[in-house]
Amino acid sequence: MIFKYFSLDILFLLPFYSFLVIFLIVEYKKRKENFFKCLSLMMFIYALSESLKLGFKIPREGFFSPYRFPSSHSAVSFLIFLLLPNKWRFWYLPLFFYVVSIKLLLKAHKLIDILAGVALALIGKAIFDKARKRIGRLFQRKCFHFFIIVILFLIYINFTNLFPKLMTLTTFLGVFLLVTWRKIPIIRDFVEFYDPGRKGLAAFLLSLGVFLASFLSLAYMEEVLFYSFWVDFGASMGRIAGKKRKSVEGLLISYVFLFVPFILTKKFNPLFLLLPLVEFASGAYDNLTLPLSISIFSLLFPYRGITLQPHS
What is the pLDDT of residues 227-250, one digit of tens each? Predict the structure, then answer.
């Protein structure tokens, strides 16, 4: 059933996806720096939207993403409107309204979801621009990591039992790319932009951390992925508001963002209060240690919710 609606969704939105691909190809050919800026911003908006969906958990049926608020398609499609030159915006508007109309007609979203997506695009772009000026490519690399976490979360929700096997394949693919990335031009550009110092190791460590956490306890992957996103996001906001690198000021700000998943999920594990410290102390290996720590803390304190009921 899920593939039926997922395929129908893609079929109706094919004009939008085609425009998106053409837009990115043109930017890649013209100016790679702007291409990666646009791509990072799209990944950031999509990841932020999906993470909020996974927090609010307002359900819908028959779609790959099982929750509806806010609308990720509306957020990304409106973001493209903001990225286009002024002379092209008028001609793009019919496509934006087409995307919104299809989502409403398929009952994938309600009007409030659409409006929230548009607002998210505006707010997210402002955060991205501020972060890019403050910490440069470091934040764009983080956008890529946010995107990976959200995609893994969606895969986990839809293919829970297969998740460890899928993560095994992902890990082997990561090893292959680490060895061969220099031979494929677009992957070489991708790695050199997002991880110039470590040549793709950061993203690989993230996948490896999630892979190992899935074998420790598949039952707690929701916590692993959701808190990985928000702790990493909070640490990034801390660097923007504090110093460019890890600092005590940034650590304190990351604690503020730690309460976002507490509030959204109404779940509180006191050991999770250590997560910003784990991220802070792990240095370049935080992508590996953070998922593992969340899994271990969940196993040590196996309770969920304000009533502290055991995890089923």
Answer: 888 888 888 887 776 655 667 777
C-alpha neighbours within 13 Å on the C-beta side of residue 81: 18
Domain stops at, among 79, 106, 135: 135
Give the predicted TM-score (pTM) of the model: 0.86
Domain end, chosen from 83, 115, 135, is at 135
**Within this chain, do residues 257 and 126 fall inside the same structural domain, yes or no?**
no
Domain count, the chain: 2
Distant-in-sequence, close-in-space partners of 160: CB < 8 Å, separation ≥ 6: 218, 221
Report the 10 Å Cβ neighbour count for 230. 23
**Under a CB-based contact definition with an 8 Å cutoff, are residues 203 and 148 in contact?**
yes
CB 270 within 8 A of CB 246: no
- Check residue 79 and give its pLDDT: 92
**For residue 153, which of 209, 226, 71 has the smallest C-alpha distance?**
226
Could you tell me if 199 and 178 are in contact, meaning their C-beta atoms sit under 8 angstroms apart? yes
Do 165 and 226 fall within a single domain?
A: yes
d(CA 168, CA 154): 17
Residues 268-277: contacts with CB under 8 Å, at least 24 apart: 268/306, 269/223, 269/297, 269/298, 269/301, 269/303, 269/304, 270/301, 271/297, 271/300, 271/301, 272/227, 272/297, 275/227, 275/231, 276/231, 276/234, 276/235, 276/251, 277/251
Q: What is the pLDDT of residues 275-298, one digit of tens each?
A: 989 888 887 788 889 999 999 998
247: Cα separation from own chain's centroid: 24
Token pair 């509030």 is found at 263
Q: Does 158 share its domain with 93?
A: no
Q: What is the per-residue pLDDT across 74-132, written as a single tens digit (0 to 9) for each?
A: 999 999 999 888 888 888 888 889 888 888 888 888 899 999 999 999 999 999 988 88
